Amino acid sequence: MTAPKKKKTIRMIPQARTPAREQDPKERACNFLEVTHSYLVEDALLEAERCLMCPEQPCVGGCPVNVAIPDFIQRITEKDFRGAYDVITGTNLLPAVCGRVCPQENQCEGVCTVGDSLEPVAIGRLERWVGDLAIKEGWSNVPYIERNLFRVGIVGSGPAGMACAADMAKAGCDVTVYEAFHEAGGVLKYGIPDFRLPNTVVDAEIGKLEQLGVKFECNTLVGRLFTIEQMVDEMGFHAVFIGTGAGYPSFMGIPGESLNGVLSANELLTRCNLMHARDFPNFDTPMQPGRRVAVIGAGNTAMDALRVCLRLGADSVSCLYRRSRAEAPARAEEVHHAEQEGIQFHWLASPVEIVDDGNRSVRAVRCVRMTLGEPDESGRRRPVPEPGSEFEIEADMVVYAIGTNANPIIGQTSRLKLNKRGYIATDESLATSIPGVFAGGDIVTGAATVIEAMGAGRRAARGMKAFLGLRDTEYVYRDEQAGPDTTLFGIDRAEHGYARVRLPR
Predict the structure, then answer these.
(1) Cβ contacts of residue 297 below 8 Å, gap of 6+?
(2) In b/e form, how buried is each residue of 183-199, taking b as 16+ CB within 10 angstroms?
(3) Does any domain span residue 144?
(4) CA dist., res. 192 & res. 286, Å (int)
(5) Do 379 and 268 share a domain, yes or no?
(6) Using an 8 Å Cβ cutoff, are 351 and 385 in contact?
(7) Are 237 and 229 in contact (CB under 8 A)?
(8) Are 290 and 394 members of one domain?
(9) CATH number for the domain including 359?
(10) How many domains is the chain partitioned into structurally?
(11) Residues 29, 48: one domain?
């Protein structure tokens, strides 16, 4: 008889977190190759041993899509790598993506029990390793699908749209995804540079959707070619999901924003990612990177813009942020990588004017020093200008990365109810004011993380299934009156899986 396995304690596991290999900062500042490399097999096995397999599993609750994290890590320790992949993709279709860009330090790793005493288990790195291995080996988690007659339209191919599309395809629906750009992937494609998330990884994950039968229609701007109402009333869709994101850039409204050389981070990153501006002269995309670049903002998008400009050949790249480093919304890892690469940070500095060189182009950014006062509605200390502290930073290109707003086109071309900020209003099931139309992700909540958008897409899919009368296999149906005296064909009603039926139009 085999002795029971001894329970792990904090003293029994490897004390140090298994590091990930990285490109040398001087080398990577000149290329668009990934900064951080995936684990080797031995790295993954060593890090997986650090998981305590604690019964409370706080990491699962910390994940917006509730990936069974201890289960997939246990499979890694058993060298059942394919099993680990199947566990993850039971709830998360994009492990290779989420393992790279999710803020694990604020989600699953932030509540890891090991993190109470040591560095938390590197859940994100393990997830990425499993996802990368699946791409290399050609694995896919495609269940048996019993087709039905329902047609579902998805507007937007970002993480929310892809998650909803996957769940509805698994439910047997005929799913078509409409994307405004010429390549599918949404913000994963146009908003994140290759050195953080390679396009090849996004394409591989999209291929998993195509294996489920999902169809993609690119170069299709919903709201211009046709409306949401037309999709429901004329095009034969029984349900529609809107996941267009919040990609409308914000500006400060200070003097000089109309000068040549001022642009948004969205424009910069889209030109580089989808239009290949970084690969001049093979792709002659209109793009004139500045020699002295100032980026306003300190979120993840700002870090991406700063580091892209450096790779495009800028002599100096500066970050301007009105709060301190401690309040910067970017991931700590991204700020660290930017500092390693030579980005200049001007903390507690707020632009007040973009200075004209006399020819309608940027010469400098005039800033004012800030101090931190009492916390504002965001919970962060409010920046307060210091009188007489104005100074200039020389620049010939200024990039705004201070947040985004809702894409307006859907709201302008449909009867959808919007909130006061222009985002689509939904109920708890993410149903909109138009029957059969659902929405989720940044177009409902404002800017959020990739995994939060995916969680919204899956939540909307559950609401969509209920609307269509499709049984949700993730929900256990119970008859409220089930009991010993309530049987059907001699079987307790509680043992039956009931589904409402809604006939396609």
Answers:
(1) 265, 319, 320, 321, 400, 401, 402, 403
(2) bbbbbbbbbbbbbbbbb
(3) no
(4) 19
(5) yes
(6) no
(7) no
(8) yes
(9) 3.50.50.60
(10) 4
(11) yes
> Residue 59 is encoded by which pair of tokens?
């990491």
Distances (CA, A) of 429 to 13, 177, 241, 456: 42, 21, 12, 9
- Domain membership of residue 287 as a residue range: 253-404
CA distance 438 to 431: 4
Q: Residue 12: inside a domain, yes or no?
A: no
Expressed in percent and rounded to 5, the helix, strand and coil fractions of the chain are 35, 20, 50
Q: Is the preceding omega at residue 281 within 30 degrees of 0, hence cis?
A: yes
Q: What's the length of the chain?
A: 505
Mean pLDDT by 10 residues, the chain (505 residues): 68 93 95 95 97 94 94 97 95 93 94 95 97 94 89 97 96 96 93 94 93 96 96 97 93 96 94 85 76 96 96 95 94 95 97 96 97 86 94 96 91 94 95 97 92 94 95 57 51 50 53
Which structure tokens are listed for 253? 């409204």
Q: What values do phi and psi take at 482, rounded to 5?
A: -65, 140
Determine the pLDDT at residue 4: 54
- Residue 90 tokens read as 């039971």
User: Do both 258 and 316 map to the same domain?
Assistant: yes
Tokens of 478: 């119970």
Per the CB < 8 A criterion, the answer to whether 451 and 92 are in contact is yes
Nearest to 157 by CA among 97, 109, 104, 105: 97
